[in-house]
Design a protein that fits this description.
Layout lengths: L3 H4 L2 H7 L8 H19 L12 H16 L13 H8 L7 H5 L1
């Protein structure tokens, strides 16, 4: 499992979210891990196994997803992460669309 703060350090993450160091770190950690997990699951790439293996555009997607989750953290309605077409296009371009069953055979 990749630590989101290896991808973007906590102080830079807080700056991106326009928060300060008084923000509860656990709340940021939970949202950051959820954003990272979402992006990794969407891309479905075995070679994305460390922070160093992730391309810069992945970091941009992660930060956009984190920002969306963070800004809606108190929402009581359904959040559709697919509503951002730029994010979707960027993530889609990094997906592994090869037929994995054919490779395993």
């Amino acid at each position: 499992m990749i630590d989101p703060f290896e991808l973007v350090p906590l102080d830079k993450t807080l700056g991106f979210l326009r928060e300060d160091l008084d923000t509860p770190q656990e709340a940021v950690e939970i949202q950051a891990q959820a954003a990272l997990d979402h992006c990794l699951a969407y891309c479905d790439r075995a070679d994305y196994d460390s922070a160093e293996a992730l391309p810069p555009r992945f970091k941009a997607c992660y930060l956009m997803t984190l920002s969306t989750l963070w800004n809606h953290r108190d929402a009581a309605t359904k959040l559709d992460l697919k509503a951002n077409p730029v994010l979707q296009d960027m993530l889609y371009s990094m997906r592994d669309l090869r037929d994995k069953t054919a490779e395993e055979a």
